[in-house]
Amino acid sequence: MKPFNLSLLNLFTAKLIEESLKGNRKAQLKLYNSYCDAMLTIAYRYVKDMDTAQDVTQEAFIKAFSNLRRYDGSSSFGAWLKQIVIHQSIDFLRKRTFDLCLDQVPNLSIENDDNWDVEEHLEVNHIKRAIDKLPEKYSVVLKLYLMEGYDHEEISEILEVSVNASRTQLHRGKNMLKEQLKMKGYEMSHNH
């Protein structure tokens, strides 16, 4: 997309936000329709059930519209909305007895291990499915880090845990993911 078109898009979104703040229902509906599918995809990534993802997305939009005055434009509207959707998803998981007792992990000294290499024949969908099979306390941290691009400070804020707990869970989750992918690679190579 050309910068010109992007600025037009931003202008269009800004106008919709301005109209939504005035209580214009049509503008709110247009904003909702512009972002609904993308936000539903993000919610589904965490809650793994379409009906629940729809509920989470609806709740997130209600929260966004009731807090629209807080949107300051420092990030794109989509990025601001995405944060609300992720927080709503995590809140849902917590209410569902999500095991987020991350702060109870021992203080491990984890080397900065940025090696995320996986075997070349594994597709992104295989990796996503493998992440989904991990216990939630690992899969959520992996998704926030790998898919959303959050750093440990942001993850610790979202999950209300220490930065060290975030690092530890990421490290453990990554090791479990590697094991799953190795097993998957083994299965796939023996199925051919």
UniProtKB/TrEMBL annotation:
Keyword Transcription: yes
PROSITE patterns: SIGMA70_ECF
Any one GO molecular function term: sigma factor activity
InterPro entries given in the database record: RNA_pol_sigma-70-like (IPR039425), RNA_pol_sigma-70_dom (IPR014284), RNA_pol_sigma70_ECF_CS (IPR000838), RNA_pol_sigma70_r2 (IPR007627), RNA_pol_sigma70_r4_t2 (IPR013249), RNA_pol_sigma_r2 (IPR013325), RNA_pol_sigma_r3/r4-like (IPR013324), WH-like_DNA-bd_sf (IPR036388)
Domain RNA polymerase sigma factor 70 region 4 type: 127-176
Keyword Transmembrane helix set for record: no
Protein's name according to its UniProt entry: RNA polymerase sigma factor
